[in-house]
Amino acid sequence: MTTMITLDSMTRAAELLARASRVMVFTGAGVSAESGVPTFRGAGGLWEGHPVEQVATPEAFAADPLMVWRFYDQRRVNLAPRRPNPAHQVLARWQERFASFVLATQNVDSLHEDAGSRGVLHLHGSIWRVRCCRCQEEREDRTAPFPALPPRCSCGGLLRPAVVWFGEPLPMDVLETAMVASERCEVLLVVGTSAVVYPAAGLVEVAASAGASVIEVNPQASALAWLASVALRGPAGEMLPRLEEALAERTS
Ligand code: BV8
Ligand code: ZN
């Protein structure tokens, strides 16, 4: 079923991109929805079963590492078979298409990389990386499920998911790089985020106030929809391939 959107919004979005040489994309859980990954908020959201303050905070982990690991181990098991959808694939192709292209994501999955994106800015870390609470060693670990929970480091220390929990600072270098890119970009494409989590969502405000044109791709209006000059109100897996087509017509 093709989502009916006003043709002029697709045309206008394509025209903005056709004229841009510095493009930035900011994604959230919605870009992975069509890969079968549950989003956080809204019906059937991931947080529904687990109020976020109970599982995605350092306090929750300190109080009950086993309960928090049960949540993350289950998410890793569910994520393991998931594959990129057409939205991830379009974004991976666009890294060659523009003179400057930066992709920043709030997602902790690796579907952008699996689709071929490189240098992805992971503002909230990665569910596929673990860090030792004792020796701080951090590494990629795809074991799913872990044979025993909570998993331990070779030093005997407790491992934690290398994600950013509520109340924790974002990785400074990653946030800084993303902020600079949002100040410089001519177009910011905001794909599949409710834009309620800060400081990540602040990227949209920084880009807009620096004069970028914001295009939102989301079936619903995000909290920052008012900053968008164009909204493509449909699923990213359908909207981005149509946008790629409309762009090709303008630049062939
Ligand atoms: C910090 C990683 C300070 C873990 C996540 C009041 C009280 C307490 C805290 C705060 C407060 N006010 C503000 C804060 C700060 C807090 C915050 O912003 N809270 C919000 C909720 C109010 N932020 C923090 O705590 C951050 N840290 O501020 O630290 C500090 C500074 C210095 C020193 C010490 C401390 C840390 C925030 C990071 C939290 N970690 N996740 C994990 O994943 O398990 S956040 C979590 O939400 C995910 O990362 C997710 O990426 C992020 C945002 O959610 P979305 O991606 O937008 O997903 P959502 O489900 O919300 O929306 C999906 C969208 O997709 C919808 O719009 C839907 O319409 C759309 N969609 C659906 N299908 C499709 C689609 N779109 C396109 N196509 C489709 N097919
Ligand atoms: Zn260790």
What would the keywords be for this entry?
single chain; 252 residues; alpha/beta; Rossmann fold; SIR2/SIRT2 'Small Domain'; three-stranded antiparallel β-sheet; 17% strand; binds ligand BV8; binds zinc ion
What would you say this structure looks like, in words?
The chain has 252 residues and is of the alpha/beta class. The protein has 2 domains: 7-36 and 83-124 and 171-251, TPP-binding domain (Rossmann fold), CATH 3.40.50.1220; 43-81 and 130-163, SIR2/SIRT2 'Small Domain', CATH 3.30.1600. The chain is built from 11 helices and 9 strands. The strands form 2 sheets. The chain has a 6-stranded parallel sheet with strand order 3-2-1-7-8-9, with helices on both faces. A 3-stranded antiparallel sheet has the order 5-4-6, covered by helices on one side. Ligand BV8 binds next to helix 2 and helix 11. Zinc ion is lined by residues 132, 134-135, 137, 153, 155, 157.
Write the layout of secondary structure elements.
Layout: H1 7-19, E1 22-27, H2 30-33, H3 46-49, H4 52-55, H5 58-63, H6 65-79, H7 86-97, E2 100-105, H8 111-114, E3 121-122, E4 125-132, E5 138-140, E6 159-163, H9 172-184, E7 187-191, H10 202-209, E8 213-217, E9 230-232, H11 236-251
Parallel strand pairs: 1-2, 1-7, 2-3, 7-8, 8-9
Antiparallel strand pairs: 4-5, 4-6
Bound molecules: ligand BV8 and zinc ion (ZN).
Zinc ion (ZN) binds next to loops.
- Please estimate the helix content: 25-40%
Number of helices, counting only DSSP H or I runs of 4 residues or more: 11
Which regions contain 5 or more consecutive residues with pLDDT less than 50?
none
The largest sheet is: 6 strands, parallel
The CATH architecture of the largest domain comes to: 3-Layer(aba) Sandwich
Strand content range: 15-25%
Tally the structural domains. 2
Question: Which hetero compounds are present in the coordinates?
Answer: ligand BV8, zinc ion
Based on DSSP secondary structure assignment, what is the total number of beta strands? Answer: 9
Distance between the termini: 28 Å
CATH class of the largest domain: Alpha Beta
